[in-house]
Fold each of these.
Amino acid sequence: MGVEGIGARVARKEDKRFLTGKGRYTDDMSVPGMKYAIFVRSPHAHAKIRSIDATAAKEMPGVIDVLDGRQLTADGIGNLICGWMIHSKDGSPMKMGAWRPLADQTVRYVGDAVAVVVADSVDEARDAAEAVVVDYELLPVVTDPVKAMADGQPQLHPEAPNNLIFDWQLGDAAATDAAIAAAAHVTEVKIFNNRLSPNPMEPRAALGIYDSGDDHYTCYTTSQNPHLARLVMSAFYNVAPENKLRVIAPDVGGGFGSKIYIYPEEIVCLWASKRTGVPVKWTCDRTEAFLTDAHGRDHISTAKMAFDSSNRITALKVDTIANLGAYMSLFSSCVPTYLYATLLSGQYDIPAIHANVRTVYTNTAPVDAYRGAGRPEATYLLERTMETAARELGISPAELRRINFIRSFPHQTPVIMNYDAGDYEASLNAAMGAADWNGFADRKAEAERRGMKRGIGMSCYIEACGLAPSSAVGSLGAGVGLWESAEVRVNAVGTIEVMTGSHSHGQGHETTFAQLVADRFGVPIDSVNIVHGDTDKVQMGMGTYGSRSGAVGMSAVVKALDKVEAKAKKIAAHLMEADESDIVIENGELKVAGTDKSVPWFQMALAAYTAHNLPSGMEPGLKEGAFYDPSNFTFPAGCYICEVEVDPDTGRTEIVQFVAADDFGNIINPMIVEGQVHGGLAQGIGQALLEGVHYDPDSGQLLTASYMDYAMPRADDLPSFKVSTSNTPCPNNPLGVKGCGEAGAIGSPPALINAITDAIGNNTLTMPATPEKVWAAAHAAN
Amino acid sequence: MYETNYHRASSVQEAVKLISGAAEGKYLAGGMTLIATMKQRLAAPSDLVDLRHIAEMKGITVNGRSVRIGAATTHHDVASSVELEAVCPAICALASHIGDPHVRHMGTIGGSIANNDPAADYPAAMLALDATIVTNSREIAAADFFTGLFETALNDDEIITAIAFEAPAKAAYRKFPNPASRYAMTGVFVARRDNGDVRVAVTGAGSNGVFRHQGMESALAGNWSPDAVGNVSVDASDLMTDLHASAAYRANLIKVMTKRAVAAA
């Protein structure tokens, strides 16, 4: 592997600039004549806009203009869309209501944008925004998705009676029901998956620059997928044709899914720049982020799991209600369907599964993918159900899982997925060993003597990532293909640039992608630059989400490297008058195998560009591109074990041990993988223990709009994680990699809740397991 | 934040003069609440008069068991005072757990007391220590000082210059932090004097702010031990219910924190 190649623990190249404050984020961008936007937002969760009076605001110091939704509509800017079509089980298409970038008639959640002020300074824009008078006619509010479906409730969109967006199913209902009827035991569980706010460290921002000379737009934005942003803004929002729109996502400080989507603000900044004739920058403040960043999760489910007399699962039936908020965000429809119900088989051989999912509009912020996106919801449901079943059946949770593990591959589940490889027992054994599972009884007894309740819980997760085979997702309703692209450009001096359609916003691509090149050509990673995030520099690509950069983005790089290698060998063979099949590349040299003849890498590159002595008919230069479309998802899996001590007097939970044993296939950089797992675990533990978005049910006001009320995990909430990996290489991509970005957030919540419920002897507990809830549950009869 | 005029006073007299000349002036005594509120445009003082640099309001003096803490003394200075630690370690420990290091280096004891946030730590200490709040015009007993949520006996433009108390024989503070804000969801300060007088002051829980719990006090006056707390009933009807904790849970926390404070004292 070499010291910087595949598998090497290389320190991240990008960290120097991040740690020394030299990162360049959207808000750091400054262009001549730039002005500042502040949005006027609805303080009401549901209201009709009677009128907007900006007369006074326009007269205020520094104000360039105040623009509202009617002007935006008049200029032909389109609705925000959801790009994944889901059909209800009756065959009808999902019922998508209009989402205007600036509401022109109705506001549907607190924070809905109704106008934008452009001014010389942020403070002047803010002053003027306060002076915009919006006359609202208040409408009744509904925030609870179950209530929203009932008759007589407030209706958010005329297109969606009873606020029902779709009523979808997957799997065989009859077979599932029959298996449940015939079961020796049925475990039934109610599951609530709490709504989360994504909280990237860098809030969203956009800078729209209209150049009237070329009738051209540039948009700097906090995006995980700038090409997708350009495509959507061009094809659906009528901002500008693609060749007149450049989207740049420079350094981006975390996304967790929330920066996949195209939000109203970037559209409005571009449009406002043309309207006002000045570049317009908007930077979200933290309160706006809580109000308007797409939230995650928010499912209410029931699960019935059937077992035969030997404790084998015979069926799983799931009914889920997913709250999608006031509007359908870009990928909101696929999260509670194809990213959720397709994972309900987990690591288990389940003959029959049926899932029914209803999605509902409410007067809350839109809900979309958040780290894990559907897979955490599936894992939480499944692993809480397994734990409950083990307790009911009186067998150990590990044994129940072992009995039901899938053991031969490929394995076709009843819910679309075809698992390619895995060894679930290996992860389970590794985790139980690392956690000293067998020593738990002694530790519990010792804790008991100190008056503490100790509990242990596990979670065996599987996820599908490496999104995704384009034809497969297309047949399921996706509006885009989910391939990835790469271009490898060898310069005349031998240094290398890799243009990738993947986007790094914390994942470390500048290091890991460079490691692929170093590994292949034996050149130092410092001679390799990874270029991403700019639609003018990089060919069309699909961006980063769903743990796809390794499995899909790197695979595209590998394909391009294959082409570069082939041409480089031809050139070298020609230079050394050898047969190209005898050329090997090692340590930055192209050698003739079995001889002492060699050409340094840079000399071969120079020869490619001088073109003085190339094989007959060969084009000069050395630059190759590739598109890679995966043939399947990849299936990372693992086992997490959490051990807690609960203080019965206060209900406070302390995590005393957390073990993660993951199978991510081959690993490019173990240090980065560990970092991803640590971050994912922190987010999963945050969901299980601390985080939760709350709206006032009567007014629709967001009650958790700051860190005073929204509890983020902090260092002292977390233990030192014990992480390890095992490896069944993915057979479906050239690197054998799977994906590690989301696993921690997917696998950890049920392990934690299983541990707490084990400690307190009461299985009824919802996330987040706040001290009060745990205290109450510990003192209530099970 | 709206525009405001910043003034740095070098004496109490100058501070009073500056505030009387301002249209809508506010004293700034660390600003750990005020500045955040101003940033959110929820407060808009025309002028800020900074009290943190007034020499006569800074520093800690310990004379025997008599303690005087200048109102502009930061939490960090209270937490790390060797003299104070020797006579009343409980208040040092309390200060060491306020906010984070940044807050502890900016926030002051006078600012905290004057703000009387119902979840702040110092008000409980003041009540339990039977402290005297010294202002530029009078001395106010802590028992008379805290009058409600964010309400105190201070007159407009009155400045707390110091707090003073006699160090008790035993004291301790235990708080259960709000998981989000880390303010006290319930905090209990207990103090016992050689004459057997016991005070138990509770912050973060009362719907009308900090208060003394008479039931706990009499139980502990009779038997200064954690076991004495067990049978004391805590009435939840005057306690706060919010997103993070119900009144019933806070009632439980009052007992648990009292017990632990007594054990630690």
Amino acid sequence: MNLVDIAFLLLAAAAVGTALLALLVRELVHTILWVAGFFVVLAALYFLAEATFLGVLQLGVYAGAVTILLLFGVMVTRRSIFRRDAATGIGPTSVALAALVVLLLGAVAWRFGGTGAAGVTAYAPAQLSQALFGTYGPWLLLVGLAMLAALAGAIYLVREGRE
Amino acid sequence: MTDAFTTAGFLALSGALLALGLFGILTRRNFILLLVSIEIAVNAAVLNFVYFAAFAPTTAEALNGQSAAIVIVALAATEIAVGLAIVLGLNRLRGSIDVTGATDLRL
């Protein structure tokens, strides 16, 4: 077990822990703070896999924009943002059951995952942009169209004067 | 750089994250928590793309996986924007963002 493995294990534990906390805490604002931490941990995992551009994208889009959007949603829809919700209804039994399922999944993945290829290939971001705008140009156009439709749809949903 | 990753580790991680997201989608009633759960599940998928790309034998194949991951990230961000617009509409219409009360197919 080398240093990269240890880093991966620590980051994986942090990812599962922050995601779990995000779903289990009872204040909505705390949920969003934990999920912001989750996004940052995932960015670190991407950096570990040599996916530098995706790591930066994750930090900018998720840890930045999505977190702020979610916080904005909480602030607009609540009178006092630090309000405790009712109990989650998750007893120790269900937590134990979920832990069992996770352990089983982990054991199965450990048994049948096998060892991977020789190494992680590093590349220049310019190569990624060539693939993205060359081979995947049509996909990028479709994403742009979807974003345009989402923009129009969001404006339609929240516009003034609707019943 | 690295030569000791196994596919087992990240498959277990992304399986666990998908399970967590699914758990949230099935049990939470708050619309914003629902969106957070969906994001966790989507991020598990992106993690899979990134790590399988890291195991790809050639650079071209690694770039394929990462391009797919970028497209997914962009679409997930779009989905959050529309989801929050629905949250605002629901809040204005019903005064709460509890999804159990949203039984009509119109906003």
